[in-house]
Amino acid sequence: MRVLSIASEVFPLIKTGGLADVAGALPFALTDHGCEVTTMLPGYPVVMRALDRAKVTIETHRLDRVLGANAQILSCTLDSLRLFVLDMPDLYDRLGGPYTDAEGHDYADNWMRFAALAKAGAMVAQGAVAGFEPEIVHAHDWQAALTPVYLAASNRPRPKTVLTIHNLAFQGNYPAAIFPQLELPAASWSIEGVEYYGNVGFLKGGLHACDVVTTVSPTYAKEIVTDGGGMGLDGLLLGRGTRLVGIVNGIDTTIWDPKTDREIAAPYSATALKPRTHNKRALEGEFGLRREDGPIFAVVSRLTWQKGLDLVAGLCDEIVARGIRLVVVGTGEGIIEGAFQAAHARHPDRIGVRIGYDEPLSHRVQAGADAIVIPSRFEPCGLTQLYGLRYGCLPIVTQVGGLADTVVDANYAAVSAGAATGVIFSPPQRSALLAAIDRTLDLYSDVGLWRKMQTAAMKADVSWAKSARLYAKLYRDLTEE
Question: Rounded CA gap, 6 and 41, in Å?
């Protein structure tokens, strides 16, 4: 079965968050289920440079005008990942990131940049690349969400479409004035199309037009059909009924494997945990932390309100007072970044802070820290806790979304059964987080129990195996309709 996956970022080519990890890993997991996935993404400078460095064989396919501009598809295979790269330099050849300029401001024409990705994706899905005819188009998040809209508006035969919501908070809503430039029929400007409270809603339109909506955990699928979790789209999503499916994300367990990870100081495994201490000592040195036997807690995240990191920043003094050292890696809202930097200034040998994205460092943090703190106010799935489980860095998480689906709370029954893999708390508030931190300290003080929890965590199946099987079944069920 041929699948065209369309995403705005794909690891290892370009990454700002978990979407890239999913778009990069799921295609490989699907090969075991008879699915051949080709991933389409924009030709950002970093992507074009990667193709140039790799000296891969590239086939060029010219497209008819895409939203009034010249475009071409570069077809190649890079590190076994089949790619269609949308080459439109006027839209993608820019300094900065995939969505923002060097100062962190959204590009004013993001609507055009990602409408073009979706339009080109629909063209490819309907034969614009000779010899490629997918049975399934899998679009990811609002940036690719117009793909099902363009396909549904076509009078030509089309493949079945799946749209995955990675985070409902980001919907791609733009002023109505852009609609004429989207090259959609007039009928698409309707409540059943892209019109959304007088604006153009990319995600909203895709949710109407696609054959199936998926999201990245079963609990999040339940949350987003409620008034509190649907962010204005709960009615539409509730109306999709059984066409809304929650499939939990996995991780690439070949990249994230403490037995073979070349980024960490010492390899270890669930059955050989002792070398993990070397990683803790290395982490202390890297962050300038005081060397001692007490626990190290970690944050590796976007530093945002959604992730609840304002709560952690506000508790830094209390955390230190409990004998905990803290390392923070991430970037995000200035006020939260500043709060962590100020905490580091107050406690330079107890709190280490790195502002920025650093993939190799995140491996070293997971290998050396004892617990990873993820107090999200909402979390569609989350991958950080999965990395933590894989590395024996036990998650402290709120009872929301994919966090609730993937971590087993250390309650009495779970501890007694040897199944506990972390600490879950609710609600996402200061007092509840502090209580969870205290509970974690009690667990950590029992060395034997903590080791059993680490072992259980590291043996948890966080791979794509089960979820890829569910996606493959979903694809096949669609094609058989």
Answer: 6
Question: Are 178 and 293 part of one and the same domain?
Answer: no
Count H helices and E strands in the chain, helices first. Answer: 20, 18
Structure tokens at 233: 């789209």
Alpha-carbon distance 196 to 185, whole Å? Answer: 16
Q: Could you list the residue range(s) of the whole structural domain that residue 151 is in?
A: 2-250+465-479
165/99 same-domain check: yes
Please give the structure tokens belonging to residue 291.
């060397």
What are the φ and ψ backbone dihedral angles of 228, each rounded to 5 degrees? -80, -25
373 falls within a domain: yes
Query: Are residue 310 and residue 175 in the same domain, yes or no?
Result: no
For 39-87, the pLDDT digits (tens) are 999 999 999 999 999 989 999 999 989 999 999 999 999 999 999 999 9
Report strand pairing: 212-215 vs 244-246: parallel
d(CA 102, CA 79): 29
CA distance 375 to 300: 12
- pLDDT for res 480: 95
Quote the Cα angle for 212-216-222, to 5°: 80
Q: Does residue 303 share a domain with residue 188?
A: no
Residue 176 and residue 284 share a domain: no
Strand, coil or helix: 245: strand
Count up the domains in the chain and report the number: 2
Name the one residue in this structure whose structure tokens are 């491996």.
Answer: 363
Q: How far apart, in Å, are the Cα atoms of 187 and each of 42, 47, 195, 239, 240?
A: 28, 36, 10, 21, 21
Question: SS3 for 199?
Answer: strand
Q: Measured between alpha carbons, how far is residue 253 from residues 29, 37, 386, 390, 462 in Å?
A: 11, 19, 10, 8, 8
3-state SS assignment for residue 36: strand
Are 9 and 141 within one domain? yes
Contact 139, 109 (CB under 8 A): no
pLDDT at position 104 is 86
Write the pLDDT tens digit of every residue in 147-185: 999 999 999 999 999 999 999 999 999 999 999 999 999
Average pLDDT, the chain: 97
DSSP string of 74-143? EEEEETTEEEEEEE-HHHH--SS-SSB-TTSPBPTTHHHHHHHHHHHHHHHHTTSSTT---SEEEEEHHH
**Residues 166, 140 contacting (CB under 8 angstroms):** yes
Residue 119, marked binder: no
